[in-house]
Amino acid sequence: MKTYKKGKILENIEIGPNIYKMTLDISLDGKPGQFFMLRCDSFRNEPLLSRPFGICDDNNLTILYQVVGEGTDIMAGLTKDAEVKILGPLGNGFRIDDTKDKKIAVVAGGIGIAPLLYLVKNLDTKADFYAGFTNDSYFTEEFKPYVKSITYTSFEKDGKFITEAFDPNDYDIIYACGPNPMLKAIHDMNETAEIQISMEAHMACGIGACLGCTVESVDGEFIRVCKDGPVFDSREVFE
Ligand code: FES
Q1: Ligand 1 pocket: which of 210, 222, 228 to mutate (most atoms <8 Å of CB)?
Q2: Measuring CA to CA, which of 26, 40, 44, 171 is 20 to 30 A from 3?
Q3: Is the dihedral of CA 218, 200, 170, 152 positive or negative?
Q4: With 0-12 CB in 10 A as exposed, 13-18 as middle and 19+ as buried, what is 172?
Q5: What is the reported pTM?
Q6: Which range among 72-76, 99-103, 149-153, 200-204 has the greatest average pLDDT?
Q7: Does residue 224 line the site of ligand 1, with CB under 6 A?
Q8: For residue 41, what is the DSSP state?
């Protein structure tokens, strides 16, 4: 049975407006696209509920997160050597065994960029990387050594969504992580590519027990994002 293990924060820094990168002193030996649950006792003396985070890097386990509420606000206040508890790696991860000589696009929407660095580091073929942001871009420089090209859009600056920057049909495989409407838009534009999407969901347990993260598949089955995913073929989820 999986249990939480302890880790210590090496670094917790703001890399963009309300976007933080946290690095820990442990490694999970996870696969790209897998995630883990993180829990910490906050400096406000309230235990922080577990939250899911994708593996952004795993040499020293790294996450990116956006401060969007009380939990992530507490996380942003944690400093070096603070202790956190980690459960993982969890979920299925991306399928990357058949990427040699394939034409690949990796597509990020906002903070969905987080698990994609660990993905591009592990692909056999360099991908074209596309990243869409609402405002300022962040973290794209980290991708430079591992991808063939980088394209990004900022909706507030140039009025464009990232889905307007490429044609999925130019690729054999697309890996995407971001808001569900972006994932659906890529699916709708596509006729020929295999699309692997990493879905976002609220997760309380992360291990398939609470059913809080279920979504309905196209076959009408209820699938758990944490246990059956978080990576799905887009045809399993979107008509
Ligand atoms: Fe509990 Fe998925 S988070 S079943």
Answers
A1: 210
A2: 44
A3: positive
A4: middle
A5: 0.93
A6: 149-153
A7: yes
A8: B
Q: Please state, in angstroms and as integers, the Cα–Cα distance from residue 22 to each residue in 60, 109, 153, 209, following that order.
A: 10, 20, 25, 28
Q: How far apart are CA 228 and CA 230, in angstroms?
A: 7
Q: pLDDT for 89-123, tens place per residue?
A: 999 999 999 888 899 999 999 999 999 999 999 99
Calculate how far, in angstroms, residue 212's C-alpha sits from the geometric centre of ligand 1: 5
Instruction: Please list the residues that pair with 173 across neighbouring strands.
Output: 104, 194
What is the rounded CA–CA span in Å between residue 229 and residue 193? 20
Pocket mutation for ligand 1, best pick of 203, 223, 232 (most atoms within 8 Å of C-beta) = 203
| CA–CA dist 206, 113 (Å, integer) | 20
- Do residues 239 and 187 lie in contact, with contact meaning Cβ atoms separated by under 8 Å? no
Q: Is the CB of 204 under 6 A from ligand 1?
A: yes
Amino acid symbol at 28? L
- Does ligand 1 have an atom closer than 6 angstroms to the CB of 209? yes
